[in-house]
Amino acid sequence: MTRSIAYKLILILLSILLLVHLLILAQLLPYEHFWGGRLTSLEEMYVFESSAVLVTILMISTFYAQYRLHKIEKSNKVLRVLLWIFFAYYLLNTIGNLMAVSIWEKILGTAFTLTMAGLTWKVLMEKE
Fold first, then answer.
1. DSSP string, 61-112
2. Is the pLDDT of residue 128 over 60?
3. What total number of domains does the chain contain?
4. Is 126 a residue whose pLDDT tops 80?
5. CA within 13 Å, CB half, 12
6. Tell me: the pLDDT tens digits for 106-122?
7. Rounded CA gap, 10 and 44, in Å?
8. Which residues form the domain of 71?
9. How many CB atoms sit inside 10 A of residue 106's CB?
């Protein structure tokens, strides 16, 4: 897999994640099945999901900006530091998903964050 394909897969997966968070915010998906099954109120869901939407938009923006730089064979140290932070976040989130109450989050969440960690690793490790 090339670095460009990894970027495109990341952007597709993050777009799907953003859609899921928006569906939860719109109460079209039950929040009880997310966040490890630990949310206890609608107000709590709004806080968690709003922050998740903002973080996901930050991730999409960062990966897209780095992808555009990659296409013209340039790099940006700030964006690369953010990608390393995202990589660590995905690994920690994988551990959190493994401890989720919901079996669906345990399976799908773990697969998602592990995939994102692997793709981010690919982006970070491939030679310039």
1. HHHHHHHHHHHTT---HHHHHHHHHHHHHHHHHHHHHHT-SSHHIIIIIHHH
2. no
3. 1
4. no
5. 8
6. 999 999 999 999 999 99
7. 28
8. 3-125
9. 16
